[in-house]
């Protein structure tokens, strides 16, 4: 266990420009350095290295990280090897061993035991498959070869209430219940999975964290999944990601389908960049993880009502997360087909043609909302505008937002100027942050956004952020809270390079990186950052005071005392309002 304090000290001593410069030709570009990205082919430099924040970021392929991460990604090194090489370059000795606290040691030991138990269960199920002619015939009937079944680690859980007794000598071990293999109730224990084809679920370290079991023939539920456990959270894991990663990198695309069998069947027919959710709706963690790996993400659903409903949920998750340089699309298969059945009947080339014609996010969004409104009537167009407004306001991709607004204006028969006025924050609203205006650059104009941008120049300021004042529905609020969590857990502000590493699996990392980019473009020094931070806090306080005034008015001013109290608060509100500087479209005082 390499302590965070050593890692922080190492990154502080390193110059990431020197580390990256050994492999990439860099040129000075303002406060940063730029060059051609080593992780994808490009002719115009989009790869930036920040000596001040000690991290790199490519605005083309979204690769990012600190010096340790660069050696891991570019040099294909393991974490420990990368740390050792960098430490040796600056004359530091990596601690041979760092004692954990008793609680940390106990948790780590327990986690290791559970991983070993899950690995043993997978090997047992694989062995059971070899002795189950009925299960083998089922897989052959689905068109799967033994090679593909072995690649995905498929197995079989026998039709036996306590079949795992043959695998685990201590069937009463509490760990079997803790990791979801065994169910305990009313004094009895029995296997969760019985008479099912077993699909092991691997995390991003290629360790088994859960299983999905597919019933043979008819029966309910058709798919049975592991419950939430210390190792397995359905909303974060992606089935087949480890097997698909190479193909995703090669093609720059990923296909998100609904079932385990769909992923395996597509791989059998040469479509190797398919992954699936794990018995749950698409989450921000799923979308963020995939968009960091690929430029083109296609959601593939059945064409029935359930498939379109699932697709709409995926769209709602993707809208605030998709950047301009990425594409999210939707493919609906012919009625009665799923990816498994379609590719078996029609082959890889036919499926590839369908993928090529997948519907862009903007087209799916506006098409669905048009169908729900009568655009031939004023009332129907008003309903259309009301329905589309929250989606437009969630978009953080500036160019995509402009394109969609242009289409909305044309469909609703309003001018672009009127549409911008309609979609902006209403004047005098008691909740002006519910629909945050965005500058022409695409950056949010909310106080939360300015807090995040300025905070990245001085993480010590996070102690002054009161979560109760933040609008919970804004993605920049979620990013702020994620940064706050990392800083509080560390006990002291980490460097930006360490912060990014800690947020690697956080679905709101993209917003932190966008805020850092704006901070760098503006060339913040510490004094400017702190002033903007104070202004943003004051604006949040202003909103709180406005709510208080509105609440007093709502309750009524029946007495002289109440009217005096209201007047005092109103005077204080106006004094604070007048003291705040106006800012231009870049956030600078005008």
Q: Keywords for this structure?
A:
590 residues; alpha+beta; five-stranded mixed beta sheet
Task: Give a quick precis of the structure.
The protein has 23 helices and 16 strands. The chain has helices spanning about 5-15, 15-20, 65-75, 80-90, 100-130, 135-140, 145-150, 175-180, 240-250, 260-270, 285-295, 305-320, 340-355, 360-370, 380-395, 400-410, 415-425, 445-455, 475-490, 495-500, 510-520, 525-555, 560-580; strands spanning about 25-30, 30-35, 45-50, 55-60, 65, 155, 180-185, 190, 195-200, 210-215, 225, 255, 275, 295-300, 325-330, 360.
What order do the helices and strands come in, and which of them pair?
Blueprint: H1 4-13, H2 16-21, E1 27-29, E2 32-35, E3 47-50, E4 55-58, E5 64-65, H3 67-75, H4 79-89, H5 102-130, H6 133-141, H7 146-151, E6 155-157, H8 174-178, E7 182-185, E8 188-191, E9 196-202, E10 208-215, E11 223-225, H9 241-251, E12 253-257, H10 260-268, E13 274-276, H11 284-293, E14 296-301, H12 305-318, E15 327-332, H13 339-356, E16 359-360, H14 361-371, H15 378-394, H16 398-412, H17 416-423, H18 447-455, H19 475-490, H20 496-502, H21 509-522, H22 526-555, H23 560-579
Parallel strand pairs: 12-13, 12-14, 14-15
Antiparallel strand pairs: 1-2, 2-3, 3-4, 4-5, 6-9, 7-8, 9-10, 10-11, 15-16
Structural class: alpha+beta
Main β-sheet: number of strands, strand sense, barrel status? 5 strands, antiparallel
Strand arrangement, largest sheet? 1-2-3-4-5
Helix content: 40-55%
Between the first and last Cα atoms, what is the distance in angstroms? 50 Å
Helices, by number, come to 23
Instruction: Tell me the total number of β-strands.
Output: 16
Unreliable stretches (pLDDT < 50, length at least 5) are 425-441
What's the Cα radius of gyration? 27 Å
> How much of the residues is beta strand, in percent?
5-15%
Oligomeric state: single chain
| Average of per-residue pLDDT values | 84
State the shape. globular
